[in-house]
Write a structure and sequence with these properties.
single chain; 266 residues; alpha/beta; two-stranded antiparallel ribbon; globular
Length: 266
């Protein structure tokens, strides 16, 4: 009579690979490149060293094993679709959701709700939500983010995670002014003691309910995740934090930011 072997539990790496395969990356790409001097194209198509921001974003996550992408596009979104197609040229799968309104009147929360309702975002699968127009210098961030998210979900029951930067230096000086209009102190480009939102979120399917229930598509102006959805999730103790050093994050908002990113990446 042979000795039966206990079935082996999957290793952490095997489990992580499965979770990566089940996770969709949602890229919010509806912004225009006006502040970067390119008003006739989506911001995500601005180039750094000959490659567009959205191509860099997809390659960044793909290098961590993510192959499923949903691109939320708005005005001039057909330019993005022409570039990426179905994603096969980058070794990934890409599908699209077009903003349900005029430029400047949608916002991230409306765009995400619309994508969930139209099925572009699979409501049964986890999402990593990010902007393609920010640059992150830590090549392993997506994998470590997902691991942290999974750990908090199991130990604390959280349903979403936000990436925060610590030690963020303001690009301008600040002053303290007294009641008589006199400057009491002045500090040039101080380092904030707060954690700064980088705009990357992980959301499990239960978090989508907060989007569906709290985002009113009939309102005329834009609705943001940061003003309507995330505060409610946080107020219930369901939002975890993943903290990175501010030095590893380059938000691209100005030509100066673009020049810095070009000097620090290939």
């Amino acid at each position: 009579m042979g000795i039966s072997k206990k079935p082996q539990r999957p290793s952490v790496m095997d489990e992580l690979a499965e979770e990566i395969g089940r996770t969709q990356v949602v890229l919010i790409a509806g912004g225009l490149g006006k502040r970067l001097g390119q008003p006739d194209r989506p911001k995500c198509l601005v180039e750094i060293n000959g490659k567009t921001l959205i191509e860099r974003a997809i390659e960044y996550f793909r290098a961590n094993g993510f192959t499923e992408y949903v691109v939320l596009v708005g005005y001039l979104g057909e330019q993005v679709e022409r570039l990426l197609g179905d994603g096969s040229g980058l070794g990934v799968n890409v599908r699209y959701s077009y903003d349900p309104g005029e430029p400047g009147k949608v916002g991230k929360a409306k765009a995400l709700k619309h994508a969930i309702l139209n099925g572009a975002v699979d409501g049964s699968r986890r999402s990593i939500i990010a902007f393609p127009d920010d640059v992150f210098l830590d090549s392993t961030l997506p994998t470590r983010l997902l691991l942290t998210h999974m750990e908090y979900t199991r130990s604390r029951g959280t349903i979403a995670t936000v990436v925060l930067a610590s030690g963020y230096r303001l690009p301008f000086g600040v002053a303290r002014v007294n009641g008589e209009g006199l400057v009491e102190s002045f500090e040039e480009k101080p380092v904030l003691s707060y954690y700064v939102n980088t705009g990357i979120y992980v959301m499990d399917p239960p978090a989508y309910r907060f989007v569906l229930d709290n985002v009113d598509m009939s309102l005329g102006g834009p609705i943001e995740l940061e003003t309507v959805v995330l505060p409610k999730i946080a107020s219930m103790g369901l939002l975890a934090a993943f903290v990175i050093p501010a030095s590893s994050w380059i938000p691209i908002n100005t030509l100066k930011d673009l020049e810095e990113a070009a000097s620090r990446i290939r």
